[in-house]
Design a protein that fits this description.
It is a single chain. By secondary structure, the protein is α+β, with helices and mostly antiparallel strands. It has 8 helices and 15 strands. The strands form 3 sheets. Strands 3, 6, 7, 8, 9, 10, 11, 12, 13, 14 and 15 form an 11-stranded antiparallel beta sheet that branches. The protein has a two-stranded antiparallel sheet with strand order 1-2. Strands 4-5 form a two-stranded antiparallel ribbon. A hairpin with a 3-residue loop joins strand 8 and strand 9. Helix 2 runs parallel beside helix 6, helix 3 packs antiparallel against helix 4 and helix 4 runs antiparallel to helix 6. The protein is elongated, with a radius of gyration of 37 Å. The relative contact order is 0.11.
C-alpha cells in the first residue's frame, strides 16, 4: 500500500498534462487570407452581375458583340478567381508548414519539461524518505535545521506549483496549435474544392463564348456593318478630342506669349516641346496626377466591369475582326454616373453620334474623357474634384438597362491605357 501512495504524485502529473482534454477554437484567419477572400468575393459578385446582364440581352449583331465582350470579361474574372484561389492555397500551405514546425518545437519542449518535473518529484521523495512531511521536519537535528527544512518544503511546493502551471500552459498551447493545424488542413480542402468548381465554371464560360462566336459568324455581314459604324463613330470622337487638345495647346501658347510681351518673362511652361504651356498651379496639378498612376478611382459609380480593353485587339474567336480602342469601355449598373478621377477643369462638352455627350476634363497636361452621357451635370470652365459626378450614363435596353462608359486618358497628344492608372 505504501508503494502505491508513493507514486500518486507522478500519476497525477501524467494524467493532468497528457490526458486532460482541450476545447479548441477555430483560429482567426491571417490578414493575407482575409484580403484574398475579399478579392474573390468581389470577383464572384461581378460575375453574377454579368450573368444577369447576359440573361436580359437581345440577339441582334450589336448586342451579340456586347455579349461576347461580357463573356470575355467573365472569362478574365474566372481566371482571376482561380489565381486568387491558388494564392490562398499557397498561403494556407505555408501556414500548415509553420504550424507543423511549431508543434514539433512545443512537443520537444513539453517532453523535456515533463521529464524534468517528474524527476524532481522522484528526487524529493528520495530525499525525504518518508511520505510524512511533518516527520521530515521533526527529524531535524536542531530547531534551526527544522526551520530550514520547513522553508525548503514551502519553496519547493511553490516551485512545483509554478512548474505545473507552466506545464499546463504548454500543453494547452500545443493543443491549440494542433487545432490550428487541423483547421488549416480543412481550409485547404475547401479551397481545393472551390478551385475545381471554378475551373469547371471557366470551361463552361469558354464554351458559351465559343457558341457566341459561332453565332456571330452566322451574322458576319451584319456584324461587319456594325463594326464599320462603330469605327466611324470612334474616329469622329477622337477627331473632336484631338481638335480640342490642339486648340487648348494653341491658346496656352498664345497666353504665354502675351504674358512674356507684357512682363518680359512667361510663367507658363510646357513639359514637352509643342506641349500644353501650364501655369504654376497646372504644373503642380499635373505632377500630382502623375504621382497617382495606378491609384485613381474608377470613373464610374457603383460596381463595374471593363468589357473592352485599350489598344488594338481581336475579340476571342474572331481573328478577322480588329478593334482599335482609344480608351476602355466600362459596363456599369443602371443609373450609374460618370465621375471625375482627379481634380481638374472641364474644358469641353460635345456630342458625337454613338457616344451621346462627352466631357473633357484637364488635369495640367493630362486629360480625361468621359463619353456616353445622356445628362451632363457640369459646364465648360467648371472646376471639378476627385469623385465628383459629371453626368448620368446611357442605359442600354438591349442589355437590360445596363450602362456603358467610354473612358479615355491623354497626356498632351498621346493616348494612354487607362487601366494602368485606375486602382
Amino acid at each position: 500500500m505504501k508503494c502505491v501512495w508513493r507514486y500518486i504524485p507522478l500519476l497525477l502529473v501524467l494524467t493532468l498534462f497528457v490526458v486532460q482534454p482541450f476545447m479548441a477554437q477555430t483560429p482567426p484567419k491571417s490578414a493575407a487570407v482575409q484580403k484574398l477572400e475579399r478579392q474573390r468575393k468581389s470577383i464572384l459578385e461581378s460575375i453574377e452581375r454579368v450573368n444577369q446582364l447576359l440573361k436580359k440581352a437581345s440577339t441582334d449583331a450589336k448586342s451579340s458583340l456586347q455579349q461576347l465582350q461580357l463573356l470575355e470579361s467573365q472569362i478574365r474574372s474566372r481566371e482571376k478567381i482561380i489565381q486568387t484561389l491558388e494564392a490562398e492555397i499557397k498561403v494556407t500551405e505555408s501556414q500548415i508548414v509553420e504550424f507543423q514546425v511549431r508543434i514539433a518545437e512545443l512537443e520537444e519542449q513539453f517532453a523535456k519539461r515533463q521529464k524534468s518535473y517528474v524527476s524532481s518529484i522522484r528526487a524529493m521523495q528520495r530525499r525525504t524518505k518518508t511520505e510524512d512531511q511533518l516527520l521530515f521536519i521533526l527529524s531535524a537535528e536542531d530547531f534551526a535545521q527544522g526551520l530550514r527544512r520547513a522553508r525548503y518544503l514551502a519553496e519547493y511546493a511553490t516551485w512545483q506549483k509554478k512548474e505545473g502551471e507552466k506545464l499546463r500552459a504548454l500543453r494547452e498551447e500545443l493543443d491549440r496549435e494542433k487545432a490550428n493545424l487541423e483547421a488549416q488542413k480543412e481550409q485547404k480542402e475547401v479551397l481545393l474544392t472551390s478551385r475545381k468548381e471554378e475551373q469547371a465554371n471557366l470551361e463552361n464560360d469558354r464554351s458559351k463564348s465559343r457558341a457566341k462566336v459561332k453565332e456571330l459568324r452566322g451574322q458576319e455581314k451584319e456584324l461587319q456593318q456594325e463594326l464599320k459604324r462603330q469605327r466611324a463613330q470612334a474616329a469622329a470622337l477622337n477627331k473632336q478630342i484631338e481638335q480640342q487638345i490642339a486648340r487648348e495647346i494653341a491658346a496656352a501658347e498664345e497666353a504665354a506669349r502675351k504674358q512674356k510681351g507684357q512682363t518680359g518673362k512667361a510663367t507658363r511652361q510646357a513639359a514637352t516641346k509643342g506641349g500644353y504651356a501650364m501655369t504654376e498651379a497646372e504644373l503642380k496639378l499635373s505632377s500630382n496626377f502623375a504621382e497617382n498612376r495606378g491609384k485613381l478611382p474608377a470613373p464610374i459609380s457603383g460596381y463595374y466591369t471593363v468589357i473592352a480593353p485599350f489598344g488594338i485587339y481581336s475579340p476571342e474567336g474572331l481573328r478577322n475582326v480588329r478593334v482599335n480602342n482609344s480608351g476602355i469601355d466600362i459596363q456599369g449598373a443602371q443609373g450609374a454616373e460618370a465621375r471625375a478621377v482627379f481634380d481638374g477643369v472641364v474644358t469641353k462638352i460635345f456630342v458625337v453620334e454613338g457616344y451621346d455627350n462627352s466631357v473633357i476634363v484637364r488635369h495640367g497636361n493630362y486629360l480625361t474623357v468621359y463619353s456616353n452621357l445622356t445628362t451632363v451635370y457640369v459646364k465648360t470652365g467648371d472646376k471639378v474634384s476627385t469623385g465628383q459626378a459629371l453626368g448620368k450614363l446611357y442605359s442600354d435596353p438591349a442589355l437590360g438597362g445596363a450602362t456603358k462608359l467610354h473612358f479615355q486618358l491623354w497626356k498632351e497628344r498621346t493616348k494612354l491605357d487607362p487601366q494602368l492608372w485606375i486602382r
